[in-house]
Amino acid sequence: MEQKVIPLPGPAGTVVETTIQAMRDAILDGTFLPGQRLVVADLQQRYGISAGPVREAIRRLTGEGLVDVLPHRGAVVRRFSERDVREYFEVREGLDGVAARLAAGNIHRGDYRDRLAALIEEFRIASGAGGPELLAIRGALRDLIFEIAGNMRLAEIASRLVYPALSERLHKLLPKRTASSFSEYEKVVKAIMEGDGLEAERLMRLHLRHSASAIRDTMEADPDFYKALFGG
Q1: DSSP letters of 90-155?
Q2: Would you call 230 exposed, middle or buried from its count of C-beta atoms within 10 A (0-12, 13-18, 19+)?
Q3: How do residues 30-80 score in pLDDT, each as one tens digit?
Q4: SS in 3 state form for 145-202?
Q5: CB-CB contact of 164 with 66 (8 Å)
Q6: Distance CA 139, CA 145 (A)
Q7: CA dihedral 188, 171, 232, 44 (to 10 degrees)
Q8: Distance of alpha carbon 82 from alpha carbon 60, whole angstroms
Q9: 129-139 pLDDT, tens per residue?
Q10: Any residues with CB less than 8 A from the CB of 55 and at least 6 apart, and which?
Q11: Are 37 and 68 in contact (CB under 8 A)?
Q12: Which residues contact 166 (CB under 8 A, 6 or more apart)?
């Protein structure tokens, strides 16, 4: 049976950029599963495009940590092992903790205080409603804290080492932690607002330890669900 062509989103951007976004979305929403091979010819047929944009999309998504290129298999959707998840939180604890401490020292500059207050209020509303925008708002809040921190090297390292595919899947593992996650983040923001860098760092690290612990509990309680999400 001939495969149905899935039109790329448009008209914005180039064919390469729209291909990258389409493949990124397919990985993040589970259309392409962990461990699944990404065959250039199949993707050409799927999206109705030439090989060049597909190869460039695979290269870019490999750089984002969404795709692995393996010997004798080629490109595959990245799997995440339990070790990957553990190390992810260890890295997050260090990076986000330092960012929270530095942000507390810069909160008095410009409109940072107003922007942070507005975002934590959006987070509160989204947490109560449980809408799909919650992950995006939480990501925006984290990005703002790194912006306020004012350390470009720290933000660069964080963007390279924290994989969006992993964040998306971890969010699905923690549906019952939304309320406590907001409460913990609210305390972090309060410490930043008060300019208490040491407390902000301590609370951010504690928040991430709680998240890591909840993930481990979910893995143990429902290993099949974990494998379906991560392929590990």
Answers
A1: HHHHHHHHHHHHHHHHHTTSTTHHHHHHHHHHHHHHHHHHT-TTHHHHHHHHHHHHHHHHT-HHHH
A2: buried
A3: 788 888 999 999 999 999 999 999 999 999 999 888 899 999 889 999 887
A4: HHHHHCCHHHHHHHHHHCCHHHHHHHHHHCHHHHHHHHHHHHHHHHHHHCCCHHHHHH
A5: yes
A6: 10
A7: -120
A8: 25
A9: 666 677 788 88
A10: 40
A11: no
A12: 65, 80, 84, 85, 88
**Tokens at residue 192, please?**
């930043």
Q: Kindly report the CA angle at 39 between 34 and 42, in degrees rounded to 5?
A: 115
Phi, psi angles (nearest 5°) of residue 37? -70, 140
Residue type, 88: Y
Residue 230 Cα distances to 33, 72, 115, 146, 166, angstroms: 8, 22, 34, 27, 8
Structure tokens at 144: 């703002």
Q: Is the peptide bond before 11 cis (omega within 30 degrees of 0)?
A: yes
CA of 121: how far to CAs of 116, 125, 138, in Å? 9, 6, 11
How remote is the C-alpha of 74 from its chain's centroid? 24
What kind and span of H or E run contains 75? strand 74-77
For residues 4 and 42, give the distance between their C-alpha atoms in angstroms, rounded to a whole number.
11
Whether the predicted pLDDT of 109 surpasses 90: yes
Give how far Cα 219 sits from Cα of 2, 31, 214, Å: 39, 22, 9
Q: Are 106 and 112 spatial neighbours (Cβ–Cβ below 8 Å)?
A: yes
The residue count of the chain comes to 232
